[in-house]
Amino acid sequence: MNEINSENKTITAKIRHFIARMMEEMKKCTWPQRDELMESTILVIVVLVISTAFIACIDQILYWIITFLTSI
After folding, report:
1. Is the confidence at residue 3, as pLDDT, over 80?
2. 17 in Cβ contact with 4 (< 8 Å)
């Protein structure tokens, strides 16, 4: 593909060239099927909920420890 000489082309030509190259690269990508996408999304949500619960428990335990130590 012809490379655009950056010194002689306008900004509009550079943008068009960039978009054309981007579209070529996007056609090379393999996209997940709907069922794969749903499975991955559910997995992310489950891990997020578990992580949130874990961090909340640790936070509560540390709160109790600090409250106990400061009340002595």
Report:
1. no
2. yes
Q: Is the Cβ–Cβ distance between 6 and 14 less than 8 Å?
A: yes
Long-range Cβ contacts of 37-41 (<8 Å, 24+ apart): none
Token pair belonging to 44: 């992310």
Phi, psi of 24 (to 5 degrees): -60, -45
- Return phi, psi of residue 17, to 5°: -65, -45
Pairwise CA distance, residues 12 & 36, whole Å: 38
Average pLDDT over residues 49-69: 97
User: What is the rounded CA–CA span in Å between residue 65 and residue 59?
Assistant: 10
- Tell the residue number behind the tokens 């960039």, with chain if given: 18
